[in-house]
Amino acid sequence: MEDIPISSMPGISRLGVDTGLLREVKEAYELGVKSVVIFPKTPDELKTATAEEAYNPDGLAQRAIRNVKREFPDVVVYTDIALDPYNTLGHDGIVRSDGVILNDETIHQLCKQAVSQA
Questions:
Q1: Torsions phi, psi for 98 (to 5 deg)
Q2: Residue 75 domain boundaries
Q3: What's the pTM?
Q4: Which residues contact 99 (CB under 8 A, 6 or more apart)?
Q5: What tens digit of pLDDT does each residue of 33-76 get?
Q6: Helices 20-30/60-71 angle, 10° precision
Q7: Cβ-Cβ contacts under 8 Å for 28 (sequence gap 6 or more)
Q8: Which of 21, 23, 51, 78 lies 20 to 30 Å from 117 when distance is taken between CA atoms?
Q9: How far apart are CA 29 and CA 26, in angstroms?
Q10: Some GO term, biological process aspect, for this entry: which one (predicted)?
């Protein structure tokens, strides 16, 4: 995945997992930064009501974590364990058709996501 310029923010881009991310981490690391936070932008076609992409072993966050740790093993990588980037409704929880949040199902998905990123 290549870097993608953000039109409303001149000079700012979404960083490609295999390109800009490692370049930026390298620059930050050389300046003394020892931790990074990764927030993926999930393509709409990968979003579902139950957010399965959140724990895809080949998902954006998972690949980004592996790439950073491979190149910079002592950098601490943080992620946001949340379903909203992967949910078609943009919600942090699994939502039943009548609008009720399914807490147990949501927690199950969040746990799977956390394990996939560990």
A1: -90, 10
A2: 4-117
A3: 0.88
A4: none
A5: 999 999 999 999 999 999 999 999 999 999 999 999 999 999 99
A6: 40
A7: 36
A8: 23
A9: 5
A10: protoporphyrinogen IX biosynthetic process
pLDDT tens-digit readout, 72-102: 999 999 999 999 999 999 999 999 999 999 9
Number of domains in the chain: 1
C-alpha distances in Å from residue 27, one per residue of 32, 35, 69, 82: 9, 12, 15, 28
Residue that the structure tokens 């942090």 belong to = 92
Name the amino acid, one letter, at 112.
Answer: K
Residue with tokens 């579902």: 48
36's tokens: 């990074």
